Fold these 2 entries.
Entry 1:
Amino acid sequence: MATISVTKSPARARAFEISADEAKRLPWLLLTPGLVALAVVVAFPMLYSFYLSFTNYDLTRPTTEFIGLQNYIKLFSNATFWQAFGRTVLFMTLAVNLEFLIGLAIAQLMAKALLGRGLLRTVLMMPMMFAPVLVGFQFKWFFNDQVGLVNNLLYTLTGEPHIIPWLVQVPLGFISILVAEIWMGTPFMVIILEAGILSLPTEPFEAAEVDGASGWQKFRHLTFPMIGPFIYTAMAIRSLDLARVYDVVSIMTGGGPGTRTELIWTYVYRLAFTGHDYATGSAMSYVTVVVSFLFTFFLFRNVIRSRWEGRE
Amino acid sequence: MSTIGYAKAGRRPRIGDYLRDAVLYLIIFIFFLPVLWIILTSIRPNMEINTRPPIWIPRELTLDSYKILLGWPTPEGAFGLGSNIPFGQYARNSIIIATVSTLFSLTFGTLAGYAFARFAFKGKNGLFLGMMLARAVPGIALSLPLFVLYARLGLSDSIPGMIITYVALNVPFTAWLMDGFFRAIPAELDEAALIDGCSRWSAFLRVDLPLALPGAAASGIFAFLTAWNEFALANVITRTPASRTFPPALYEFTGQFVSDWRGMCAMSVMMLIPAIIFVALVQRQLMTGLTSGAMKG
């Protein structure tokens, strides 16, 4: 029976001598349970909604007809959709960068903290433990115009009642949602970036110390470039999460008032479930998901390249 | 964890170091404020919560909201809104679904991660990318087709249906993290075990798996939190208290015009407790796992 080596190292090749059949089958065997779950929960529904996006499917209509590309044509001339699309991209960009900057600052402080790091980390991770719906409800209440925490603070600090409609006015609604999302997302950044900082070797820093480098110089020329992969990973994962943002927005403003804070997925929901136009909603999900796929592909292409290619 | 060399190059702490720590405590306190406020709200009488001008220092503390949730007698009886919420049932569903789905995602994700880390096979890159793509699909996009499918399979409004859903949502990220953790383990260890006559399977069980356990703890946190907190799919799949989890149940505290913030805060605190305990127990392993190289590249 022919044998193949699984890795390039000669010593390992000897140790890993397994039959060619087995080497082909084994990884797939290991992957099967996960792939089956993904096929049922992700792949099938996506195929089904792909089909629906070419029909006039409606939960309340008894018959469904094939209508070709009409839903897609409708979507491309839908200004609200493209506004929501643009707003989502803006939201993502602002959130991921602000989370990164705040997260990096906290991670740097955390890595140097003298005591209580474990407790601090547990406390800091609390926002990660909140269900996004819960964050939505709580921040909706904090930004409530009548009895919200924010207006109450202003009342107490200035001595006069302020009834600022945080969730209603034009830039304020967007900012309120951004604040909620940043509160929820920053701890994840901190954890990954802190892990990056803690994994650095000590020698370069000692050498820099001897050469009399300032704290900023050490950060700028050592820490920052060396934690590059961690930064990349943290930002890639958060971007993917932010591209799917729905729960928080849907509860805080529902995309409204009107369409002032509408993001893609709140709009898809509004159209598909509230507006009973599931087919157009599917078409929109598809366009968005394809864009996210391209985005993911570009993000993870580098990860894949640095992971295995050139090593096999 | 002893990777702290970065911080202090063997010198005594100076005043500046304490000041820096003070800034850190302040920032973390700001992040903690909403949590504090929720806890405080859950133990104040409703009267104090909705007054203007605001009352900052509680004049009266009461555990009534928790008693109501747990079905114990209180002077008020029940919540104005969302009365008779079957809290015990929701707790049971959430705990079973989150725990079991985490165990399955860890098992499946570990096997998949091992396949990625230790084997070269055709279609590997494509498959890895495909798994990451699965993470880019939001619950909203899956909800209706999944609802239709589960109705056919008899899985809607059932605990097994929810478990399968969360296993699928968590496998990609778990596989990705585990791949990193396995690759951080020197292959020579495997090799030595094989030379000593271990089978591939027992090398995996006795060498790789124990070494990857901190990584598994890290992946476990993320999987558990996703399953514990997911809303969009739970909202569609669970229609009754038979399988409903906490996140969709939060809606039962809201009405069209008024919401019962105190009741919601009490339930939020109850939801947070298991998560906090879990994270406090494994945060050390989380950091060890993440620093060991899973994130590099």
Entry 2:
Amino acid sequence: MIIAHGIGGRSDLPIPLPVVLIGAAAVLIITFLALGFLWTRPRLQDGPDYDEPGAPVPFRGVLAAMGVLGLALVAAQVIPPLMGVEREAVRPTIALVMVWVVFWLIVPFVGAVAGNWYTDLNPWRTLGRGLGIGRLERIGIPSRIGLWPASVVFIVFVWFELISPRSGDPTALGIGALGYTVFLLIAMAAVGRETGLAVFDFFTPYNRLISSISPLGRNAQGRVVWRGWLTSLAVIPEWPGLWLFIVIMIATVSYDGASGTDWFGSITGGLGDTTLGQTSLFLAAVLVIALAYYSASAVAAALSRGQWSTREIAQRFAHTLVPIGLAYAVAHYFTLILFEGQQLIAAVSDPFGLGWNLFGTADYRVDFFVRSSTPIWLAQVAFIVGGHLVGVVLAHDRSLRDFGRDAVRSQYAMLVLMIALTSLGLLILSG
Amino acid sequence: MFKSVIVLAVLVIVVACRSDEPTLTTTSSFPQRDTTTTLDDTTTTNPSAPTTTSPETTNTTRSEIDVKITGGEVEGPETFEVTLGETVDIWILSDVDDEVHVHGYDLRFDLAAGGPFQLSFEADVPGVFEVETHGLQEPLFEIEVTG
């Protein structure tokens, strides 16, 4: 297997075939039950009701401070080499755990349940605010260029994580963090703080999309309101490039998982041995899933008898893939969070890998407290099947709104795609 | 049903892993440096095994991993399968000085050119673990601990 995350040395064992088959059977049963027994009127299409007064966001200041502190710790990794200090490369420094586990995995996953806390954590918003940058918002940019710039940044970030040989190098992460900060400060100054973040900080739409699943949202006054599960996902703005952004999300974790399997290695031959080869394989994965999704959209468009164009369908159904993408990611990375996340305990005592022991925890070793593989396998299958179920429900509901009487027939293409994607997820986890 | 399949799989792996070759044993703990076979850096021929070997007879729950690094190329399987609870003996013969790191178990040891090195540890955590060297870009191999 290729070293895949810049962190972590333990990967899950492949799911055994019987467990995979039971998962696959559950997927088919869920799909057919959904066709026959789900509601016949759209329920999730009108968006959340934010009438309640709501509650203030808890620990808002603490979250903002944590975000800035986290960014500072990552950026400060460039200091030791500048001073000519040699790192003791014994354990991951804090930057690796902060970026690849906390920022990249834990923040969005928690947001799917607790609501979009990245809004307050986002260190670049806090910085922009503190520096008084981007007070003047340029209106209309998000609806015009949408998520295309964020998609490019997304691909670059994922390339750095999964393919770059320097993803485990704290100095490289420090340089990346500094560069990204400069990039966002310029973007915010040019088009306004919120616009700049929405368009160029891909973590903003990423966290926003995933946290749309959460039952907790914020009303117009920014206060926390109970809005109900999934009510927000169906009404996310359909900015240009939305569908591709979500495709990248699915392709990323698919590529990461598949590149570790034996069959992927035998199909791609020696291509996976070089950085360039891996880059082409990753872009090919994005392309294949994009084509599959666009083809399914084309079929649905044809079934709508000219009522909808392929592009419209691709945008209208993009949100239904978010739960599938999230489920993939959670199934894939939850053991990484449980185990490698513990590296944070050691890393806080020696944040720069210089042999410090600030809090006496530098020698902490990861406790692999789940000693049996069976619960891990069952949880993985449960996540994947659960993501499929939610995706099917969302697609069904959207079909009812967009196709009315023809809803059942028109959603066939999307259901086939979802079964394919879910099976791919199971196949990847089975090695 | 799962359990029987898993048990069967484990059995297959156990049988597959049991090597007929004599297992190398050492009396001292890791990292074991066999100085008797250490060669000069300029020597082109490496011994394929240290001179002091004795067949393993007492402990049946051991697995042996043997790889050779020559000119940046790794000789040996990419994946080794071992059973949970087994003692794993890693033997590496390298033509350059390097540092070896067993991920997850978080074990490190120095590798000197020419001499075979042994690292033994108990595989008490299931999962797939990478073993890499500081010098090589690609991981040496991975250990799949099942059970």
